[in-house]
Amino acid sequence: MQLQEAKKLEKSIFETLSKHIKKGEKVILGLSGGADSVFLFEMLKKFAEKTPIKIVAAHVNHMLRGLESEKDEKFVKDLAKKYKTEIKILKKDIAKISKKLGRGLEETGRQVRHEFFAKLAKELKTNLVLTAHHADDNLETILLNIVRGAGLKGLLGMEEKIKHKIANTDLSFLKPLLQVPKQQIENYLTHKKIEFVKDLSNLDETFNRNLIRSKIVPTLKKINKNIFGTVAKNVKNIGETLDFLDDEAKKFIKKSEKILKEKNALIAKDFREANKALKKAVIRELYKVNAKTLKDFGNAQIDEILKVLDKNIGNKSKKIGPITFSVNKNRIKVSVEKKHKKVQY
Amino acid sequence: MQLQEAKKLEKSIFETLSKHIKKGEKVILGLSGGADSVFLFEMLKKFAEKTPIKIVAAHVNHMLRGLESEKDEKFVKDLAKKYKTEIKILKKDIAKISKKLGRGLEETGRQVRHEFFAKLAKELKTNLVLTAHHADDNLETILLNIVRGAGLKGLLGMEEKIKHKIANTDLSFLKPLLQVPKQQIENYLTHKKIEFVKDLSNLDETFNRNLIRSKIVPTLKKINKNIFGTVAKNVKNIGETLDFLDDEAKKFIKKSEKILKEKNALIAKDFREANKALKKAVIRELYKVNAKTLKDFGNAQIDEILKVLDKNIGNKSKKIGPITFSVNKNRIKVSVEKKHKKVQY
């Protein structure tokens, strides 16, 4: 990497950071000690020279690799000291917890990290958490979503900024490196002679993600050298299309509600005559508005509801999660279960 | 493959065939001699026992593998004889033609085959050409389109039936095996002890397609055993969304034309205020209606037009192929070059 390239990379990341972080704001940085998070730490420190912000590093020692895990912990502690940055450490035996919960290491690790972030956010009075997911991570996620059939939304990959309610705390997860390929991160660190921890346990990587990383992504890069630019273009196109669908769904609902003078109500005849993609978007929108989440609500659930709403034989209803869609003559109604406890994440 | 499975496979293909082929109709079958086209031949013969149709096999000897090519020609001739089916053979030195035209072997081979089909169609007074593209071919095409960034339309893959004007002849290309995985075809042939030619030159396969076939598809199958079902579901969802976009674009154009009392005209203000995905769909629709093709018209071209139409600084226009989009005050006009010679394919 040339100096010029490094400067350009820094500039593009500073632009992303200044879009999302206000002067004087406090941010929590997820710091594993690997190349990606060490790079993000470096970027944040440089950014803070121009725009004063308060950085708190957060490290979870997953205790999965014995002495190695201890070494990693020491590495991030030393790094934070060198960078004169506050660091918070959590040490948890993920293997033990995972066994107890009967869940996978990956899922357990993420849960523990997220709860740690939520605790810190409360303590530090901030809600902004930064993670170092990059363009390769995003491409892998998109490919996984395609293979799993996650629908158009899945083709968008990760969101640069996303809100999650964790342990009753509203967190904003920011991923400022989402447009940066792994290779650029490594080139930068080599160029600047910045050290990082190698061979971290691939705790965050499922078997399938590893297959995609090792077998598919290298081939895609061979076919298209500008694969990340292409992915970004695809994501933009799909995003525009989904925005359009969402807008039209909102308009459709509003129009019905106005005529029926009732919230969460649709004119059944109009609904049945609508285009199928619009119908699905309307169902998704009504679910989202009422359940305040789209968790566990995908194409399969939409199809079940659609089957009921498309029929025209007396009263029918379908309940998914806390939400009931029901048809009564020419009216479709959506209602929420009163006692509904919000799903955490 | 069990007898039961073979019966089920036959039934699903017969259903597709009966959707598209009328009793007594004449069809041209592209017959290379490889597993796929031999399988399709077998299916057509069985189908014809119940629904009488006239099959004409068409084979192009590409003369690319010396004696092997001659053997293949003999194989398909013998097969047609055994099946009591008329066969037409074209022998062309594709390597020589390719050199002369300065085009790739793949492109040249396809052009020669297509022109042969067109000639036969005229001679035989039919326009229906059947090819043996299957689910693996389709998945490869979709992946290639993703990697190339072909937009949402590319994610749909191949169309089961598509019209092409070739050498002034309207042809309908039908791909009845698009839902059938390669593995099923091979299992069927093994089960029924049906012979076919192996190691055909991969004339139709680009380097990139081969990479996808050998490196990516096997991994995808490892991750998702039902990958073809998932792809079919994805295609359905995306198809519905694109139908919606197209419908809305048509409505948008119609509304403008009605108000302006003029064909191919848009109200500039309304256009500029529309959602970006809708704008793009409107441009695509206007181009398609006027140019009668979308060949060489993709996202890049749409973006160029959009840039001009979105401006509001005096008269502007942009010509792509035979079509000119122009802005005059509050009116966007689309006009076609009079002398436009239709692109063949």
Q: Could you tell me the mean pLDDT of chain A?
A: 92
Low-confidence stretches of chain A: none
One letter per element, helices H and strands E, the order of chain A comes to HEHEHEHHEHHEEHHHEHHHEEE
**Portion of residues in helices of chain A?**
55-70%
Query: What fold name goes in the CATH topology slot of the largest domain in chain A?
Result: Rossmann fold
**Dominant shape of chain A:** elongated
Number of strands of chain A: 10
Share in β-strands of chain A: 15-25%
CATH architecture of the largest domain in chain A: 3-Layer(aba) Sandwich
Oligomer: homodimer
Estimate nothing, just give the exact number of structural domains of chain A: 2
Provide the structure class of chain A.
alpha/beta
In CATH, what is the homologous superfamily of the largest domain in chain A?
HUPs
- The total count of helices of chain A amounts to 13
Just give the CATH class of the largest domain in chain A. Answer: Alpha Beta
**Radius of gyration of chain A (Å):** 23 Å
Short description:
With 345 residues, chain A is an alpha/beta fold.
Q: How would you explain this protein's 3D organization?
A:
The structure is a homodimer of 345-residue chains. In chain A, a hairpin with a 2-residue loop joins strand 8 (316-320) and strand 9 (323-328). The first copy, chain A, is α/β, with parallel strands linked by helices. The first copy, chain A, folds into two domains: 3-223, 3-Layer(aba) Sandwich (Rossmann fold), CATH 3.40.50; 232-336, Up-down Bundle (Chorismate Mutase Domain, subunit A). In chain A, the strands form two sheets. In chain A, strands 3-2-1-4-6-5 form a six-stranded mixed beta sheet. In chain A, strands 7-10-9-8 form a four-stranded antiparallel beta sheet. In chain A, 55% of the residues lie in helices and 16% in strands. The longest helix of chain A is centred in the last third of the chain and has 34 residues, at 227-260. Chain A is built from 13 helices and ten strands. The model of chain A has no long low-confidence stretch (mean pLDDT 92). Chain A binds chain B through residues 144, 146-149, 151-152, 155, 208, 211-212, 215-216, 219-220, 222-224, 227, 230-231, 233-234, 237-238, 240-241, 243-245, 247-248, 275-278, 280, 299, and chain B through 144, 146-149, 151-152, 155, 208, 211-212, 215-216, 219-220, 222-224, 227, 230-231, 233-234, 237-238, 240-241, 243-245, 247-248, 275-278, 280, 299.
